Amino acid sequence: MTQVTRASLRTLDAADPLAAYRALFRLPAGVVYLDGNSLGPLPRATVARVSQVLRVEWGERLISSWNVSGWMDMPVRIGDKIAQLIGAHAGEVVVADSTSINVFKTLAAALALNSGRRVILSAADNFPTDLYMAQGLIQLLGGRHELRLVDSETIAQRLTDEVAVLTLTHVNYRTGRLYDMAELTARAHAQGALVMWDLSHTAGALPVDLHQADADLAVGCGYKYLNGGPGASAFLFVAQRHQARFSQPLSGWLGHAEPFAFDAAYQPAEGIGRYICGTPPVLSMSALECGVDMLLDADITRVRAKSVALTDLFIELVQARCGKYGLTLVSPRAAALRGSQVSFRHPEGYAIVQALAARGVIGDFRAPDVLRFGFTPLYTRYVDVWDAVTRLREVLKKREWDRSAFQVRQKVT
Ligand SMILES: *Cc1c(COP(=O)(O)O)cnc(C)c1O
After folding, report:
1. Is 210 helix (H, G, I), strand (E, B) or coil?
2. Which of 82, 134, 181, 412 could be disulfide-bonded to 213 (CB atoms 3.0-4.6 Å)?
3. Which residues of the chain have pLDDT under 50?
4. 97, 129, 364, best to mutate for ligand 1 pocket (most atoms within 8 Å of CB)
5. What is the pLDDT of residue 2?
């Protein structure tokens, strides 16, 4: 690495084509926020938009807003926007429910389609809710299916003709490692299996092309890189070719072909609309739409280019400036194999994350010993990376983590 200095990074920031986006967020002064992979910060446009929805659309127009303010169209309208970030077509993505519930819906649909098979294949280190939802689904279906958990390195070899559906999170939440979506999807298809990708740590962080990968199903989160706000609705993708044959188990009235016919018999809507269950949370969805609009405007390929530069810089600076304090890199060193986060392992990981937060650097901790830092290019500057590493070095050098207050585990880590 040629000599990186704080001044040289300020020069990089001055030339950054995404620099102007930072001012579009509300960020507390002095804080380096490296947790946008867990909860994206508040865009200023969201404050104005949600207050308009409250005051005008709800406050004045009342129930007419379902039609005149486009409330009923939100799930499909925002879904079409998210589609552009993940290489899907219009009409293939809908915004509804939480990621967990969408995992349930898509896995249930996949098992119904591949009804001769009984195995859901996944990685043992997949995000727990994805595994828990599969377990609950299997129980509900009478225990005839099996959730087969294998080492993430051996997925390709474990794909057999018993597998109904393979489900994986594209970017591992703990390590940041990326799967090769196109290759694994092709291998699954060669065995007659469907694939359901969880894009929670992908959407808004890096481009993916669901079509090029010939993907079947996907879900993803609205409150991480999409900056949709706490508990934002999630999204769900079903490839066009599957839509007519895919059933969804949560057959609510708003997924009906004609909800306002109030017919006693369920008749699924044509297309992606059948994946809506009940009434959309309008306030929350209007916040999500602001976050998605900003990413579309910023261009996901530019976002990825800066994300790679930020994560590479962070790894280099931590290794150069904090090398002797026992941090082990968990994330892949090669940017092509890494999402938009960098994780290190340390036996005092939890306390270090707490001590860093006391110094204004917000990252997070994932049990048992992983310090996780998310790099979100719309508001993170190169100089922030420098400052975060400077403070991390102070925490380690002065053993600031070694205080009882930093050892107490909070409910949310
Ligand atoms: C964040 C995340 C979720 C979140 O699920 P919720 O239902 O919103 O709580 C699910 N899966 C993965 C892989 C995630 O990273």
Report:
1. coil
2. 181
3. none
4. 129
5. 65
